[in-house]
Amino acid sequence: MRNRLFLLLLTLLSTSLPALAAQPQCDVTPVDSSLPDSDRAEQLANRAFACLRDGKPLQAIALFSEFIGLQPDNAQAYLNRGSTYVSMGQFDAGFSDYSHVIELEPSRFEGWYNRGSARVAAGHYDAAISDLTEAIKLKPDVARAYCNRGLSFLRKAEQRMALADFEKGLDLQVDMPLCYYGRGEIELSDGAYSEAIDDLSRGINIKPTAEALVYRATAYEQLGESDKALRDYRSALSLSPRFKEAQTGLARLTKSNKE
Q1: What domains sit in the chain, N to C, each tagged with a CATH number?
Q2: CB atoms < 10 A from the CB of 228, how many?
Q3: Do you know which SUPFAM superfamilies this protein is assigned to (predicted)?
Q4: Mean pLDDT within 59-84
Q5: Are 253 and 226 in contact (CB under 8 A)?
Q6: Closest C-alpha to 74, from 38, 49, 47
């Protein structure tokens, strides 16, 4: 079966949005230059988080950048800006910021993990494996690092390594849908359709994706369970109406049922 990248279920790590008594506004006007640098930096950070809350990442990036101008050695600021860039699909800018985190604090898990996970999303699998391996050395008990590295191995057709990572991730944390999806994809390619359905169903029950539903529909088709396959193709299209593989599967089974 042709490999298709699942919707990546990685979590980029940054500062959680602070819960402040008086919520700041997303405001990019200049901060009072007469204030001490520490106070200006705090205002900039709070405004940036407010912009993220309001769904305004470009404004948040501008504010994080101004913060970095005041505190160029602040690794957390680069981490936050990098995660914002990656959320917008601006991977090169995100990689650059995460590299700054690693340069400033090489023993910080989040720098390696975020850069590696972003590289998975960008399809840079060798570099992703290298980064995530460093992250795992720093924190060997973080399940999502194994799931994301496993996906990189899977896309490089290194199924044995991928399966080991997926199983390690699930040993550490049972509610990791990407690990279930990856293991299910391997089982599907090996013709273990019932096992694939079990794993894909576990992932779907946690966080459904159109890709996972199409894979499960394919397994149901192989077992001759057309009604279940049709249901999954329709569910996939409800999540992603232009998903070509779901459209093709639905049309194929609908035509077959009419004949």
Answers
A1: 32-106 (1.25.40.10), 175-258 (1.25.40.10)
A2: 16
A3: TPR-like
A4: 94
A5: yes
A6: 38
